[in-house]
C-alpha cells in the first residue's frame, strides 16, 4: 500500500509539472510571435526566480521573459548567438562561439534581470574547484597572461587510470587509499566588472564518489566550460 501511495504521488507530481510547463509554453506563444520568434525555441530557467531565457533555435535571437506575465521584460537581442550556456544560483552564462563574447544574466534585488556582455579581453580568469568532506580544492585555473595555476596543476582528473583532460603539464593525481566523496563542483568566472567581478556557477551539489561515473560526467561538463573560457582568454590577448 505504501509503495502504491508513493508511486501515485510521484506520478501526480510529474503530471502537475508537465501540465504547468505546457500551459506556460502555450501562454508564451503570443509574446514569441510578436517579437519575431520562430516555432522552434528553447527555454532556460534563471534558477531561484520567475525569469526564463528564451532562445530561438532557428535564428540568432534571445530574450528574457517573466513566467507570471508571459511577457518579455528585456529587449530581444539579435546580435548574440547562444552557442553554449549554463545556469545556476540566479545566474546565467552564455557564450557566442563565433564572436567569443560572453553574456551574463543575473537576477537583481528587484527581481529583474541585469544583462551584461563581455568581449574576450574582459574575461580575466576561469577556475574549477570541488569540495570534499575535508577540503575545497582548485582543480584548474587559467588567468589572463598565464597558463594554469592551482593546487592540482594539469587539469581535471577523469577515470580510475588517472587520465588528465584539459591540462598543460600532464601531471597525474595518485589514487586515494580511502574513498573520497565530492559534495560540490563549482565554476568561477572572473570578468572586468567592478560591480560583479566574480560569477560562480554550481555544476553539482550532493554527495558522489570521486572518480565514479557521476563524478566523471560532472567533470566532463566542467572541463568543457574550462576549455571554452581558456580559448576565449587566449583569443583576447
TrEMBL record:
<keyword id="KW-1133">Transmembrane helix</keyword>
<keyword id="KW-0472">Membrane</keyword>
<feature type="transmembrane region" description="Helical">
    <location>
        <begin position="148"/>
        <end position="168"/>
    </location>
</feature>
<keyword id="KW-0812">Transmembrane</keyword>
<protein>
    <submittedName>
        <fullName>Uncharacterized protein</fullName>
    </submittedName>
</protein>
